[in-house]
Amino acid sequence: MFKKMILPMIFTISIVLLVSCTGVQDDLTPPIDETEEIIEASPTSMGPGEEEPTQLTVMTHDSFAVSEDVLQAFEERTNINVEILFSGDTGSMVNQAIISKNNPLADVMYGIDNTFLGRALEEDIFMEYQSPMLESIPDHFKLDPTNHVIPVDYGDVCLNYDIAYFEANNLDPVTSLDDLLEESYSDMLVVQNPATSSPGLAFLLLTINNYGEDGYLDYWRGLNENGMLVVNDWETTYYTEFTTYGGTRPIIVSYGSSPPFEVLFAEEPIDEPTTAAVFGKNTCFRQIEFVGILDGTDQVEAAQEFIDFMLSVEFQEDIPGQMFVFPVNENAQVDEIFQDYLPSPEVSVTMDPASINENRGTWLETWTEEILR
């Protein structure tokens, strides 16, 4: 999610379809939307004597996307019609699922990431499912040993920078979070408000991991003194403030997948990314996204089939081009563009979901009081 790397960019394509690793999903605690959008897949055609298709509703954040032919192949193979219930960002989706847990709105929920996982598990909204596809998923993605949720994809929230800006100004790019405190990088950084943005929250958690609960606020005060700009969402960060798109800030909080997508979706063909991600030690936060069967569904078998499908090579290889995050199935292959331009972080930070759940409210309240006011 990891959540996640987390959507998202060129990632806006998924966010606008989409928010956002992030899955990626901004505005973590919005009011509940009473008019969730439901998209129903085309009904499977029926011949004489064929059974009527099973109806399966999948609740997800607005970042969800899948190739039409991939989903249609699943429906035809299983005789299951899939309805996609778009439910806002991750925070809104989780809120709705918890409030409606005695009468669930859907059969399956996809897109909950490790920053909200603890809350959902605490509220006991999922059924346990030991998918046979778990054998193909490395253990480090399995944050729930009870298998009430199963990992589907991941992404890394990292610092990104404008390559041309640093070359034109004969300045070395940042390589660590500490570099952002140096005077030579003053007035260059833009970050998202962690109370309203998923990558912003991931970056806050990264600083808490690196500097501890006793030191992270001092680090943020240092960023403030060095001219940091805080905005509400990733889109403003990337497409308004980032120098790559005409802004004034050459360093931003974004995703490790942003540079390859600059190549994939450039208006004019380019051979090299115009941006780069900072993959130093402890400079990225891993977002992992999960899927689970909502407790109370009467379509358990269909829900299990859909989860197995999401973990299949067929679906997993479709993920990067649709949602700009990466597959967890170790047998899935990704486009060589990612292999060329997306090295792995030395260490991608994660946190115990239970610890995040226990402290998130306090951390956000304290950060807002100390940094924004």
Structure report:
The chain is globular, with a radius of gyration of 20 Å. Strands 1, 2, 3, 4, 5, 6, 7, 8, 9, 10, 11, 12 and 13 form a 13-stranded mixed sheet that branches. Helix 6 packs across helix 7. It folds into two domains: 208 residues, Periplasmic binding protein-like II (D-Maltodextrin-Binding Protein, domain 2); 148 residues, Periplasmic binding protein-like II (D-Maltodextrin-Binding Protein, domain 2), CATH 3.40.190.10. Helix 2 links the parallel strand 2 and strand 3. With 373 residues, it is an alpha/beta fold. The two termini are 30 Å apart.
Strand content bin: 15-25%
Q: Which runs of at least 5 residues are low in confidence (pLDDT < 50)?
A: 1-36
Q: Quote the CATH topology of the largest domain.
A: D-Maltodextrin-Binding Protein, domain 2
What is the CATH class of the largest domain? Alpha Beta
Largest sheet: 13 strands, mixed
CATH homology-level superfamily of the largest domain: Periplasmic binding protein-like II
Can you count the beta strands?
A: 13
Q: Output mean pLDDT.
A: 86
Distance between the termini: 30 Å
Task: Supply the key terms.
373 residues; D-Maltodextrin-Binding Protein, domain 2; disordered N terminus
Quick overview of this protein structure:
The protein has 373 residues and is an alpha/beta fold. It is 34% helix and 20% strand.
List the helices and strands and how they pair.
Blueprint: H1 12-17, E1 37-40, E2 54-60, H2 68-78, E3 80-86, H3 90-99, E4 108-113, H4 117-123, E5 126-127, E6 150-162, H5 163-168, E7 189-192, H6 198-211, H7 216-225, E8 229-231, H8 234-241, E9 251-255, H9 258-264, E10 275-277, E11 281-294, H10 300-310, H11 313-316, H12 319-323, E12 326-327, H13 336-341, E13 347-349, H14 353-372
Parallel strand pairs: 2-3, 2-4, 7-8, 7-9, 11-13
Antiparallel strand pairs: 1-3, 4-11, 5-11, 6-9, 6-10, 6-11, 6-12
